[in-house]
Amino acid sequence: MRVQRQEKSRMITGELKNKIDGLWDIFAAGGLVNPLEVIEQITYLMFIHDLDDSDNRRAKESAMLGLPYESIFAEEVKIGERTIDGTQLKWSVFHDFPADRMYAVMQEWVFPFIKTLHSDKNSAYSKYMDDAIFKLPTPLVLSKVVDSLDEIYKIMNEIQTADVRGDVYEYLLSKIAQSGLNGQFRTPRHIIRMMVEMMDPSSDEVICDPACGTSGFLVAAGEYLKENKKEEIFFDKQKKEHYMNHMFHGYDMDRTMLRIGAMNMMTHGIDNPFIEYRDSLSDQNPDKDKYTLVLANPPFKGSLDAESVSGDLLKVCKTKKTELLFLTLFLRILKIGGRCACIVPDGVLFGSSKAHKSIRKEIVENQRLEAVISMPSGVFKPYAGVSTAILIFTKTEHGGTDNVWFYDMTADGFSLDDKRTPIADNDIPDIIERFKHLDQEADRKRTEKSFMVPKEDIVNNDYDLSINKYKEIEYVAVQYPPTSEIMTNIREIEMEIGKEMEELEKEKLRMLQMMCYFDLMLIPICYILGIWRGASYFFLPRLLILGYIIKHCLTWKWQNWLMLW
Length: 565
Hints:
This protein is of the alpha/beta class. It is 51% helix and 13% strand. The chain has a domain at 483-564. The protein has 22 helices and 13 strands. Strand 11 (412-414) and strand 12 form a beta hairpin.
């Protein structure tokens, strides 16, 4: 079932893409052109829409299970000292209001309502919604945006794929510059899902993404647990409380992304994720031996100010490269037995600097490196063409690396150009299946897509983890005929060409003969009939042809003259 789910296309349709582009144009016409501001406002509105859907869904589920449920849209909602009928705050109600009334309800009631929605004022949602501002300038713009979003949601419901909302969100985010100031790239949703399925999180995990952005990894992990361990979590009060309040932790330095991430998590049914503004590499991050699972695609910035980096990290790996420092951070924040699946640039695998070698040696010698999955460079297009790999390891602090599993991914279900259109070739189901049955990988040859490499080979290669270092290319011998035979064939071909050229020359001479005979016959006939003046118009082009013939005849051999005669 999991494998089949991976095979479904999750790219948004052309119609849906056009609707989103049209929505973007509405904002531009209204004077909102900053991509981050536009995405932020769209996120608020999508969140308001999803609150309505989520509330209706939870009410139905509670009714089916015979459990009590109190809607967030209670009969009376209090905003400051004022109260309003809660049903008027539902998207399904106010989207039918006239533009002026809709704008007033949104500005005075709905938006303040979502800002104070979470009862815990220390929650991530409350912290990052506190400074949220409603920026749609006019009732007309709001009305057009609401209508456009209704159309988008209608198409999304018709598509009915598990992650169409994530795809829409990814397309919205693609409107932002290709990479942030810190070198972050948005991770494709299908790659996130693959990593989550490979790690197969349990119901008691404590999951962290130290560079969470819009919380893509955390949302995917939450959805995976809902799909595969729903009864185990939601029929156990303690585990449900852990899922809602203590399982998910995310950190980032972009408040807009944190705000979007917090809303994204809450929309997906996770009430109180721990989403916090934090420079994960600095001393302000005290986390140590805290998490059981790290899922991350950390920023690949070229360098940073070493003075801002935690001294604990520099002790292990003295460098300014963020990709290396984040690997060191993962080792610090994981509990013993904790696992990590992270995306790294290819340079981490084979870099020759002391820092590169030291972090690879640390993972191989003192922890347990399990897998290296090499991904094609087009995975992050159109945003970036960087070549990357996925590292999977477990923190042990006493070694444990035995055989490391390598996989050469060549296709991810989409073309590797900027268009990223769906294609049939897709290694993801195979990767998941093989990783879950590593005991069957031992006998594979190094000429195959995946194979095992003993720790000794890695040590002997100076801890190089690039797949090309170990992959064997199978050369197929090609038998060519002897030189004498090839030369004989060439001579035969030349003789055939010569014969054909002779035939063409003969045909050309025959045509010339016919033209000459025709002209010789016309001259006396025209003289006898006395029509030289009328015939002059006829003879002018003929004379040109005769001139062409004479030109060629000058180059003829005497044999050709005889033939013509």
